[in-house]
Input
Amino acid sequence: MENIERTVTTQAGPLFQQVEAFCEDVFLRKAPPLPDKAKDLLVAAIPFLTILSLIVTAFSVVLWPLLALLGVLATFLSALTLSGSGVAGSLIGIAESLVSLLLGIVILYYLATSLSGLFNRRLSGWYKLFRADVLSVVSMLLSLGFGILRTIFSAQGVSSVFSIGALLMGGAFSALIMALIFYFSFQIREKYL
Output
């Protein structure tokens, strides 16, 4: 498992550094600070929220392979019916499932290895949670892209426009939630040694 961390660090290290610098600027220098009591409450709650996130992520990591298998079945059935848009949509769904599975495993690793540091208030635990959060944003953006592609290739006319609109609204909501997570995360970073 340490090979995963080493590989991610060498491949995505600059991404983590850029996101951290951006978040420091936005969430520490420009955003209003949280009161110390709120920070202490968050520091106490974060390990338990991470456990909850770990459970949800583990569930999704188990669910993605099942969806990929259903995608393979749908691709086979679409090919039998000569439905080109069905094949394209199914292939995009399989690709999304595989990418989400791989990212989910790495996110799961970072969440699991962050727990000890979060309970002991070590900065190493905070950094692992930060990396899981960054990878969650990457996963969300890729899922949004795959969803838009799947909708475009399904070519269902007006319903495609509404589907893309719904995807974009969901993406905007997810971005807002992730911005709040990063805000809280950077506000409490000082509490970790």
